[in-house]
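BUG: 3D viewer hangs when loading the predicted structure for this chain

Environment: internal workstation, default settings.
Expected: structure renders.
Actual: progress bar stalls at 90%.

Input used:
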Amino acid sequence: MEKSVIVLIREDFRIDDHPALYAACREGKVIPLYILDEKTSSYPAGEAKKWWLHRNIEAFQCTLQSINGRLWLDKGKVEEVLPEWVEKTNASAVYWNRVYDPEIYERDRIMAESLSSQGIEVKTFEGTLLLPPWKIKKDDETPYKVYSAFYRSLRKEEIPSPLPSLRHLEVPQLKEVGMFLEDLALLPPIPWYHIMESIWDPGEEAAFKRMKSFIKKSLHDYAEGRDFPCAGHYSTLSPYLALGVISVRRIFHTLIEMENKPVEPFIKQLIWREFSYAVLLHYPDSTSRPLNEKFEDFHWQTDEDGWEKWKQGKTGYPIVDAGMRELWATGFMHNRVRMIVASFLTKHLLIPWQKGAEWFLDTLIDADLANNTMGWQWVAGSGFDAAPYFRIFNPTLQSEKFDEDGAYIRMWVPELSQLPNRYIHKPSDAPGEILKKANVHLGVDYPYPIIDHKAARRRALEQYEEIK
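Structure tokens produced before the viewer hung:
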């Protein structure tokens, strides 16, 4: 009798280069099963990520139907729900692509042992990264703490070719219908996500379309242009990678097959993602504790007023406010701006990086525990290979450099849109007649800066000296 294999779908909503699905398809009838488990993860998905999850489950259902498959849905604790499905479907095997969230990874290890002890075949696969996160180590078998060395080591490795896209699934006849997508209750009760709907198309086809458009239109200028939020020379692939709608191996191999294209700057970003996952695997406490132990003694501030104004995009620093408003409206923020707003929170306001990291996980559709943790620890200065703590971004200078004509600010802070370029980066320096002509009433239409940059920089450096 041909065996039935449950493929536990995680953040891998695709049929192209899906190792677990591919293996199951070659060995028997396939039961793709997604179990919504909001209790186990280190970070329950925020409202924006839930919306994105709903849309991509919906798209994945259609994709599976196009190859004679279907996606079964359920919710609850995976370690409880999955064995019930094994029993009621008479499945003899369970396959999944590994997830490296520390709590999920440990739960999966225990679950695999339990299933195996009951005679159920369990196989796990690498479907998230170019290489498993334990693969790249130093000669003494310790993990890398410096990105550049990690990058050089990984680039010497052969990256497995992506598996072909599935064309047909054999599925068993099951009486069990599972849940409907609506039963997962992922969509917010109030439909505030209309801007996101207009920007982000879910599903594999959309992901491939974005990849091809980026390679054709922007890859050549990526190295020089990626730091400019309105230049458009960045990929916007991170939301698709975050849910595994496209495979990183597929992106990597598509890039290296390009002729006469400067691919290495973008490949370095893919490998930074690999480095983030390696750090998360080897240092699971890094999601809440600084990798640099000196920062255990750092005197962070409790500034609820500053925190609320930062979240709402009302700090009086236009580039910071533009970024925070883009995040709220679109579930996304340009990477350079992410660094600016994170630096402002941790070094101007001295609010703990962990709090900012939690907010990003709650509001980003590309929320990714490894990348997010690494990014925040890097900016705060508390991580491995981090930006030095004493490197404190001046948000006004950053704005003048990377949004010279104020296009990004005008888009997201429209109350400043009539200010001339000279003053749009720092409205508080504008003469009264300029503000009046631009219909800007500081303290009414737009706030004064909530903190002085020079004073904030001095305070941050004093705090740094204390832990040195």
